C-alpha cells in the first residue's frame, strides 16, 4: 500500500509499505478515504517530538471503510463507513471507565501520561497513522463509529480531532454566560474553540494570531474580534486595556509547542529543543487572564521541561485545565450542533490534495503558503 513515511525533520515521502494485518482479535483494518494534516503533525515534521522514528506514518485524523475485522469484533462489519477518534484506547481501564480515553492505561508503554494516538511517534505508542491507504485500528468495538447517513464525509474527518479538540478547549474553560474568552491561535483548533465559546454562552470572543488570513477567517467563521500580536508592542497590555484592565475570564491556548512572539522561547524551545516547545502562548495566556480566571490548554507540547510562568499562575489564583481530547466523549453534543446547523466543520477547509502530493501539502502548511488553514488528504477516493 502507499503511505506517507517520515525520513527525518522536514523529510517525508510516499512509499510502499506492507499492508497492515489483523494482529489481535479485536482489530479492524480500515481503507482510508480521507485524512487530514493537523497542526500538531507539524511538531513531528519539524522534529520536536521525541522518539519519532524513521519509517513512521503520521496521521491521527482519518475516516474510511472497514476492509476486514478480527474474530472478536461485533459492532463493525466489512463495508461500514467509519470515523475514528485519534485516541487509541481500550474502553475498560481505570481511566477509560471515567471517560478519560486520552489517558488509557493499556495502550501505551509510556502511559504514565498520555495514552495511545495514531501516527504520533512512539511516545504515544508507535501506532502507524491514517495518512496511508490502509490503517490498523485496535479495539475496533470501542473507538470507531459508523458515520451517520446525514453527515458529510469532510465534516466527519474534522470531528476525529480538530473540531472535538476546539470544543474541548472551550469546555475546559468552564465558560459561563457573558464571559470574555480569549483564544490564542487562529489555526483550525483555535477557530473551532472560538466558535464553540459562543455555543457555551460567551459574551465576547477574541482571537489572537499574527497571520492576517487566519484572523480574517476568525472574523468570518467564528465571528470573533481579532488582534494581530505583531502589530502591538505588548499584546498583554492590549488585552488588559480591552478588558477594563482586569483580563479575560477564560483564555484558551490553541497554539502549543511552536508559538511565535518571543525570540528566547523560540530558540530554546524549537531550535535547540531545550524545552518541550516554545511556551510563549501559554505564558501570554497566564498573563492575559484575570485573577481567579481559567486557562485551558489544548495546544500540544512535548513531554520535557517548559519555561512556564507557574508562579504567576499561583499568585493570580488561576485554574489551569488541560489534556489531550477524549474525542468520542465530545461527539454526541457535536453531532447535535452539526445537525442543527450551528456548526459546519468543513467551512475551514482550504485545500484538498491526493495522498501522492502529501509532501507538498506538509511544506505548504508548514510555510503558511497559499493561505492554508486546513488540508484534507484523499487516500482512496470513494
Quick structural gist:
The chain contains eleven helices and 17 strands. The chain has two domains: 2-161 and 326-378, Quinone Oxidoreductase, Chain A, domain 1 (Alpha-Beta Complex), CATH 3.90.180; 165-322, NAD(P)-binding Rossmann-like Domain (Rossmann fold, 3-Layer(aba) Sandwich), CATH 3.40.50.720.
Q: What can you tell me about this protein's structure?
A:
With 382 residues, the protein is an alpha/beta fold. The protein folds into two domains: 2-161 and 326-378, Quinone Oxidoreductase, Chain A, domain 1 (Alpha-Beta Complex), CATH 3.90.180.10; 165-322, Rossmann fold (3-Layer(aba) Sandwich). It has eleven helices and 17 strands. The strands form four sheets. Strands 3, 4, 5, 8, 9, 16 and 17 form a seven-stranded mixed sheet that branches. A six-stranded parallel sheet has the order 12-11-10-13-14-15, with helices on both faces. The model is unreliable at 266-275 (pLDDT under 50).
